[in-house]
Amino acid sequence: MFAFFKKKAVADAVVPQAAVSLPEAAVRKPWLDRLRAGLRKTGSSIAQVFTGARIDDTLYEELEGALLMADAGVKATAFLLADLKRRVKEQAATEPAVVKDLLAQALADLLAPLQRPLALQPEPPTVMMVVGVNGAGKTTSIGKLTRHLADADQKVLLAAADTFRAAAREQLAFWAGRSHVEIVSQEGGDPASVSFDAVTAGRARGSDVVIADTAGRLPTQLHLMEELKKIKRTIAKAQAGAPHEVLLVVDGNTGQNALSQVKAFDEALHLTGLLVTKLDGTAKGGVLAAIALWARERAGGAVPVYFIGVGEKLEDLETFDAREFSQALLN
Ligand SMILES: Nc1nc2c(ncn2[C@@H]2O[C@H](COP(=O)(O)OP(=O)(O)OP(=O)(O)O)[C@@H](O)[C@H]2O)c(=O)[nH]1
Ligand SMILES: [Mg+2]
Q1: Is residue 39 over pLDDT 50?
Q2: Is 277's C-beta closer than 6 angstroms to any atom of ligand 1?
């Protein structure tokens, strides 16, 4: 459970207000265990590197292989190795276990810019559109996020802007029903007009948050990417300044392809945040390092990972914590 707070009014928003308070360590523990279980396959192979007695070239070579296996990608692996060697030298570390701790710190530092809470607008409604490839976990994540928002007494309105897939409306309606929130959908409507109607309805009905679910698509399907741009433009017509959030949902199991998805969707839509799902499965987790390295060089700053998905149930959504994630990956 986490609470949402409104951003302060622009005048005194010099330091942005923390939006999502992190739950107590005790509350987060079971989730961490699940994340660890999900990452275990990789974690053990990275941890394995540090079971020897010496710090030598072999250790670094094995570590390089383990990081690549964990989906960190060539660039982030090279970055982490160089950073680690620098730290080892600085600390004059001689124990592999210490080197492992230094790697955990290097990884946590790399991931840190991705850790930022989702903030709601001072003037409601906060409008979010959720995009991603087919089956990434968009609708499920919206369902989970809706529950968290509803629990925090936020009035949520869902827009069924996936007008493509059969049963998509019903799926979203099911999640809306579970959290007793309203949904706007149209039989045979087009996604831009459903989104327009939903934002207009959200304003009229005093909703705090409007979330538009969109159909899955590959970034290579250019006409479908154009459709997303149109949805975004149409939302802006319904409310100036909206959408406030363009969230990409990425399946944590897709390896380096996840980074390609982030880049492509960002180029088309200027993403404001990421949700990384299915980290409870066989996800290797290292792709977060690849995304973090890319984010360092992104004009306009890092795209934060607002949430991670760690299961199919309503409560299986958590805020991203760089240090916890790094620990889970290495242990
Ligand atoms: N294990 C696990 N499964 C998840 C998670 N998030 C979503 N799923 C599952 O992934 C499948 C696809 O989820 P959806 O939410 O329908 O994905 P989508 O992106 O909306 O799919 P399309 O609308 O068809 O593009 C479902 O079976 C979900 O239960 C997660 O964090 N962990
Ligand atoms: Mg969906």
Answers
A1: yes
A2: yes
pLDDT tens-place string over residues 81-117: 999 999 999 999 999 999 999 999 999 999 999 999 9
Q: Where are the beta strands (DSSP E) in 186-278?
A: 209-214, 245-251, 273-277
Site to probe by mutation for ligand 1, drawn from 39, 131, 133, 140 as the one with most ligand atoms within 8 Å of Cβ, is 140
* Cβ contact 286:329 at 8 Å: yes
- Ligand 2: centre distance to CA 168 (Å): 6
pLDDT of residue 29: 65
Q: Which residues of 246-279 are buried (b: 16+ CB within 10 A; e: fewer)?
A: bbbbbbbbbbeebbebbebbbebbebbbbbbbbb
pLDDT beyond 70 at 1: no
* Greatest pairwise CA separation for the chain in angstroms: 67
Q: How far is the CA of 168 from the centre of ligand 1 (A)?
A: 12
What are the phi and psi torsion angles at 293 (to 5°)? -65, -40
What does DSSP assign to residue 190? -
